[in-house]
């Protein structure tokens, strides 16, 4: 089972990354840091006559990497009770891949993936992070991916995540069951 | 009471806009179309020594307009069970305004606002749009803004919203109670 | 299409009933008032060797009535952010019907039903009633019933529901789309 | 810190109890098993002229026990995506205590409590148990009690909970942070 981690954090070595490394150490699995890639926001042209404009950015490279793996771990700080902007932009663009003739088997491929989520927030994340968890669940449902588990950690200031013992433990057990 | 509508749609005259105009006609209130503005995604520098880098985009112009109004209506298509990317990027950047010395009264000002939400989605939005509603509720709680009401409409293809009679009616009654 | 309304309110002519009658007038459809019936709480004997004990109460009479209808409208006041106790007790007992040899086609029959929900609460029900809506959605998913719509009204003191114009309107349009 | 566990399970030694004992062993803390007590469902007489009828059951005995403790752990199997009927009936009746002249300091007393939740379900509880968690959160908000943490375990058949290693671990760490 090959694992790819999609990091949505805009800060290097932040709390979310720290928690994520408890599940997938830095030197294991494939780590994609969205902040290091250029991804344009979607323009909804699903119903445009000519379809979507071609966009010259890193989207397809990242999609190709993801499709080579069995497990996708989304790792995002909680920004305003949802995933980070860069992660949202990235996922929004999957709508475009869905209609791209170069990816005729996109949904079929995703259906085989197992998905995990790690999210970290500062404002009562075990409660206020729930909508984010539900969103990922719906995204998984849409693609018929199996949403296997999630960990929500609590941290605001740099380094604070080390105090959330429960989350660290959960992350280290993420793939266990 | 002055109303500003923040449109998160990336498509002109789409279903979300149509539904929104039932609540605030195009020639009433102030309409901001985020797609016509340049807003950069946030880089989380809350904890950087020098704070946030200055960014030369339209963020502050839009914030200034919003602060002049009493009612904020967020209008967004539901992309992947959450707000559109452009709206997420815009709201993420409010974190930066919170720490901007030019906006010492930002929170204090927002506390006086009434907030409404109109969202349109194609995949069982009355259920699967719920996390989005909860997010806006938490955002309002954070800023101590009053979340007064929301309408979730159902539409996928262009023009389809006209069939969601319940949503159209609700939108037209949005400010009634 | 025959409609049965299951009233979970413990108070006669309360706000929830008033709102419900906007959708299904008292003299139309079949109205079951759970408070007028004797239903025992479930004892979980799904895994007991002898199965469930026979219970002499009104459960099966009500189930029989429900099965004769096409549309089920659950109508409940929001007690502590969930359905009323009597309604919970009633629904809990469906687990027993699921294993009752007298009802071999229970799930099959329910699969054909359309379900609606009307709920009334006093504490920000449009937000805090959301978990209740989600529960009914999951219940419908379990039985593969179609969850067609819901109205959440706001009222606390007797009669107060008349001021929630939006909810009254929504209730009157409940079966429209 | 004195802990009281309120068990909502209707089955002795079930999965929910097993998971709960990882957090509070049987011989520690105070354990209330609702199934061993007689509690009547509420009749909403909040607005009746004479107020609530006196009811001769175990409600006040249990309330008195709870008020002597600092930590309340609610332990419930997930029945139809919410708490068990007996627990719902019990909590519904708190509305009556709120208006009972014998308990003038009920809310004031509860405000000092820390609350935890342990719930076990068989149908994707990490997702479908979310509304239950949110309900408890709102209940805690209402009484201004501090909702400190929760564990949702997965089990359906007797004994199955031993396989949910993550939940067992979480339960054992419940009071740690």
UniProtKB/TrEMBL annotation, chains A, B, C, D:
All copies of domain NADPH-dependent FMN reductase-like, residue ranges: 1-123
Pfam families: FMN_red
Keywords linked to the UniProt accession: Flavoprotein, FMN
InterPro entries tied to this protein: Flavoprotein-like_sf (IPR029039), FMN_Rdtase-like_dom (IPR005025), ISF_SsuE-like (IPR051796)
UniProt name for this protein: Flavodoxin family protein
Gene Ontology terms for molecular function: oxidoreductase activity
């Amino acid at each position: 089972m090959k694992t790819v981690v999609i990091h949505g954090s805009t800060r290097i070595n932040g709390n979310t990354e720290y928690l994520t490394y408890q599940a997938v150490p830095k030197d294991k699995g494939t780590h994609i840091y969205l902040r290091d890639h250029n991804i344009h926001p979607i323009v909804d042209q699903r119903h445009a006559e000519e379809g979507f404009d071609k966009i010259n950015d890193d989207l397809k490279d990242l999609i190709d990497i993801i499709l080579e793996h069995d497990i996708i771990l989304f790792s995002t700080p909680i920004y305003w009770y949802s995933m980070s902007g860069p992660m949202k932009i990235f996922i929004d663009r999957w709508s475009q891949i869905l209609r791209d003739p170069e990816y005729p088997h996109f949904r079929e491929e995703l259906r085989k993936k197992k998905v995990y989520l790690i999210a970290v927030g500062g404002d009562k994340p075990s409660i206020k992070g729930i909508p984010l968890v539900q969103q990922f669940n719906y995204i998984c449902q849409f693609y018929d991916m199996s949403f296997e588990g999630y960990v929500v950690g609590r941290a605001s200031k740099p380094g604070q995540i080390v105090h959330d013992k429960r989350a660290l433990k959960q992350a280290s057990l993420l793939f266990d069951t």
